[in-house]
Write a structure and sequence with these properties.
two-stranded antiparallel sheet, alpha+beta, single chain
């Protein structure tokens, strides 16, 4: 079984939890002028680099490692793009409220999709 090793995130041990709370803010009252504000987590990281509050992000990366960090459809509007760096990018803002949806998506990630992700083509 594969295990997660940091790619773009800071190496272990970390001084700060890498989680970021992201919020969309409307500037000047115009819907056309939206931007994202990132607030870093202030929690003390545990041995795996994530604070106690954000352990679900580590769990997500461990799941990704087990299935090879594929492109994963979580629901009709949310995809995690393939590759470890993209999974890390999602993990730093991963809302724990999506845990059930992501667990379902990973459990239902089919064998043929796994082969396609591994070998880059479909077996017909």
């Amino acid at each position: 079984m594969r295990s997660y090793t940091p790619c773009d995130l800071p190496p272990l041990p970390r001084l700060h939890c890498p989680f970021e709370c992201r919020k969309t803010v409307q500037r000047y009252g115009s819907k056309a002028d939206l931007y994202i504000v990132k607030t870093p987590c202030t929690g003390k990281p545990l041995a795996n680099g994530w604070c106690a509050w954000h352990q679900s992000s580590q769990e997500l990366l461990d799941w990704g490692a087990q299935i090879g960090y594929p492109r994963l459809q979580v629901n009709s509007a949310l995809w995690i793009t393939g590759g470890i760096a993209n999974w890390e990018d999602y993990a730093v803002c991963y809302p724990a409220s999506r845990r059930e949806q992501i667990t379902w998506a990973i459990e239902n990630y089919s064998t043929s999709e796994r082969k396609q992700a591994r070998y880059g083509h479909r077996n017909t």
